[in-house]
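Name: Glycoside hydrolase family 1 protein
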Amino acid sequence: MTYFMFSTGIENSCPTIAQGRKRVDEMELCGHYRRWREDFELVQDLGVKTLRYGLPLPMTWLGPERYDWEFADLAFGDLQARGIIPIVDLCHFGAPDWIGNFQNPDFPELFACYALAFAERFPASQLYTPVNEMYICATFSAAYGWWNEQLTTDRGFVTALKHIVKANVLAMHAILSVRPDAIFVQSESTEYFHAENPSAIEPAETLNERRFLSLDLNYGRRVNSEMFRFLMDNGMRADEYDFFMRKHLKSHCIMGNDYYGRNEHNVTAAGATSSSGEIFGYNEITRQYYERYGLPVMHTETNTCEGPCGDEAVRWLRKEWANVLRVRNRGVPIVGFTWYSLTDQMDWDLELREARGRIWPVGLYDLDRKPRAVGDAYKQLIADWREVLPAQSVCLTVPLAPYGRSGAGAAARRREAAMPKAG
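Structure predicted for Glycoside hydrolase family 1 protein:
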């Protein structure tokens, strides 16, 4: 069937901070474990039919081939009963404690086994984001020193990036062995770096190539000579690079792009960056990514704070929606739009670097589940545009099987065949 995906999401970030001693669990902080049925009712009330939704990975994936599906069975069963289609978010900024962090070279193959186990248990799931915002996860964990391994080196960044993207690719292969019609929505941050003066042009150009690295590797697009040298100088081997060029699954993908006002940056001659605020905007930056990859697009995240005047978020929603229509009218196949997230979040004003318990008022609903002005505006926008927006082609089929346990024998037979060889 044809379907334009008006969407929202349940924020499920779970990185560790404080040298791994503390985990920031947004589902817990925002009350979803206690109020998940109420949250799904709010999704229905909005008129949203697709939901970016994932499990608490560290509490679900307990060890190699050890899983606790209790919460997953309840949540995904309820979504199916309500007719809400999940875009399954398997890894959102954090690995389980027993793995450690994204420097662990075993992470990609282990994560593919987890993806396979999930797909076998929930074969009705068709839409996936195996690893959310791969570029941001590697940058914040291993270049900025904020999360997880908390490194601040180029080698740490390249190591995290190659492991994260390989995990994403291997997970796609594993899921396709169970669900051959699976579609992968790569929710990735779309960035741009502006030179403050002529002396900053070179570092800005370098950063504007580096922003593409996660998707270049994921989609098997050869990087330029400068980025190739950067990767090789910082620990990527030639055979690892060749894996990405040969094993990509671009034909199964929708390019999900996330855009916030903070996604554009000023760059100094020394390469230091700071937020520039919105200069180009979603339309122009999406065009750059579309021209590079040529894939259907979904706007997979945006928000802004409600603010003291009460209408800032509503104005941002209208601006982003106007940009979505502009993207479509320029001939780019755009298949969905997402306000992220359903409820307010916690401590994202500090990018989760500290656990202060501070509410970040960006949700369609506050944490008491009362609608914000932007929630009412989004509900009306969906009602107004659902029937008149020409839909794009997305293969969303009737579920093949109910949610719940599938045969253990199938897991044993598929597990080896699902994993492409890296050599």
